[in-house]
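Notes to self after the Tuesday call (sharing in case useful).
The group wants a holo model before anyone commits to mutagenesis around the pocket. I volunteered. Ligand is adenosine monophosphate. Logging inputs and output together so the record is complete.
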Amino acid sequence: MRVFKTIESLRAEILGLRRDGHQISLVPTMGYLHEGHLSLVRRCPESKVFASIFVNPLQFNDKKDFEAYPTDVDRDLGLLKQEGVCGVFIPHTEEIYPRGEVSRVSVPGLSDVLEGAFRPGHFEGVTTVVAKLFNIFEPDYAAFGEKDFQQLRIVEKLVTDLRYRVKIVRGPLVREESGLAMSSRNARLSCEGRSIASSLSKALFMAKDAAKRGASTSDNLRALVSDYLSKVRGIELEYVEVVTESDLSPTKEIGSGSRILAAIWVEGVRLIDNTPL
Ligand code: AMP
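Result:
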């Protein structure tokens, strides 16, 4: 497994692999890897799989969150090697954002709701860096997790609209045994904080069960989740919404393409989760 710090060296490697007839997959990450990330590596079709590790400053609307983002590159490299990853791109910030660069890529509409409403500029940061990574790797496949469902839909829209050749591979959300959605940010929680945070998945699964039993409107489900979480000490609910998966618009009646998504704060850490209904 080779580590690349420059676009030039990475492109040379990819060119060689393509000449030998290989396809290329990309798994973009911000590092501090867990099973959720590794599951994306495993989902890539037959190809040479590359990962990128880049804590993208442009997508952090909260400076403190950026500064507190956990990193452990040596551990990450060990995990990726075990998964048989072919190469890892770990650029310096200036390699992605050279001095004087100003160009931005945005996906209005999908980026303005849910997470976008609470994290101004976040998705423009995501789509700008993803567009850059697609231009650098020109991958055949790129894997994104349903953990960040809105991000996944925005990237799919980006690919359609900007006519990227890449095929997006969706990875199901991977959870801890407690139900807590795996996230690099979980590392910032205490033991108790993790246990408190796992209430979010419990609430979402309760809503899912209620929807399965029928007769539930999205207002009922949202009330169910917020009532449940209001009784858990140490959680602050930021939002809970039921949307249509394709365009992320609010749903009234629950159908097969409905998904419930929520964001909470625990111990000063912002966490998200979602599940299909
Ligand atoms: P991140 O490092 O948080 O930017 O995540 C990199 C990729 O891993 C994104 O496509 C995420 O959606 C995905 N991912 C993160 N956590 C999980 C999880 N628990 N299950 C599935 N995918 C995940």
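Two things stood out.
The longest helix spans residues 191-212.
The CA atoms of residues 13 and 199 lie 45 Å apart.
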